[in-house]
Write a structure and sequence with these properties.
CATH class: Alpha Beta
Number of strands: 4
Helix content: 40-55%
Largest sheet: 4 strands, antiparallel
Order of helices and strands: EHHEEHEHH
Structural class: alpha+beta
Strand order of the largest sheet: 2-3-1-4
Number of domains: 1
Radius of gyration: 16 Å
Number of helices: 5
CATH superfamily: Dimeric alpha+beta barrel
Length: 110
């Protein structure tokens, strides 16, 4: 049984331009969501945060390439920089930990 599509958490920090015009930054980020559907990716959460990051979004995508493309689209706005984390549901992680390295590759590839 293949592991379901991976989850990605994208952490965003406003650039100087983003901090100076938060409304424009949020509008530009909203526009980048148009690339999610062609990438067959789904956004599960989008929150403006306090602390070390200004915005956090969580997506599900078919693979690292799709997540990287979306993160690059966000950065290309010029309003944010991004850091992307790949995540797994706890049950999927437990499955992966019980497998050998070759088994993991075979399950991810389906």
């Amino acid at each position: 049984m293949p592991i379901p599509n991976p989850r990605y958490v994208i952490l965003m920090t406003f650039t100087e331009a983003g901090a100076q015009d938060v409304s424009a930054a949020l509008a530009a980020i909203e526009q980048t969501r148009s690339v999610l559907e062609p990438l067959q990716a789904t956004e599960h959460a989008f929150v403006v945060t306090m602390g070390g990051y200004d915005i956090v979004t969580a997506i599900e995508a078919e693979g690292d390439d799709a997540a990287a493309y979306y993160a690059r689209s966000l950065s290309d706005t010029g309003f944010v920089t991004t850091e992307t984390l790949r995540g797994y549901e706890p049950s999927d992680f437990r499955t992966l930990m019980g497998l050998g390295p070759l088994d993991v590759v075979m399950r991810i590839r389906g």
